[in-house]
Specification:
Length: 155
């Protein structure tokens, strides 16, 4: 068991939030048939789920505002990713790119919204991401952050 997974399981973390692309899936961000789980994702989630942990997805999807992808496509992508990891308790996406909002990372809106919906305090939440804005969002929300690389033990 990696140190980061050990920390998650043993320091009161009860729910994990992931971003989507490059954290749990790879491939195209716009088509379902291109989404593939990254290494160690399924096994890590399966092991933690068997210990009673919950999972959620929170991801920026500014391509909606920019016209690259429709909201319907994003919902289908989120549902497909959730299915591939065995389900999630909640998911959020921010459709904004230039429009000011409280949900687009590095702001903490999506993380806080999920934690409130599922009745978790921020000490019980861990956010897994691959970019500095993910870390900033986790810090702003007051939860723990792990990089996907360390959490899933990618070399």
């Amino acid at each position: 068991v990696s140190q980061s997974r050990y920390q998650f399981a043993n320091y009161g973390k009860k729910i994990m939030l992931y971003i989507l692309d490059k954290t749990i899936i790879t491939g195209g961000n716009n088509t379902l048939n291109e989404q593939v789980l990254l290494p160690n994702v399924w096994q890590t989630i399966h092991n933690l789920r068997s210990q009673g942990h919950e999972f959620a997805i929170a991801a920026n999807q500014g391509g909606i505002e920019m016209g690259f992808v429709t909201e319907r496509q994003v919902v289908a992508l989120m549902q497909d990713a959730a299915r591939k990891i065995g389900g999630v308790s909640a998911w959020r996406y921010c459709p904004h790119y230039r429009k000011p909002c409280d949900c687009r990372k590095p702001k903490p809106g999506m993380i806080i919204s999920i934690a409130q919906e599922l009745n978790y305090n921020m000490r019980e939440v861990a956010y897994i991401g691959d970019q500095e804005i993910d870390k900033q969002a986790a810090q702003a929300a007051g939860c723990t952050f792990f990089t996907a690389k360390e959490f899933f033990q990618w070399t």
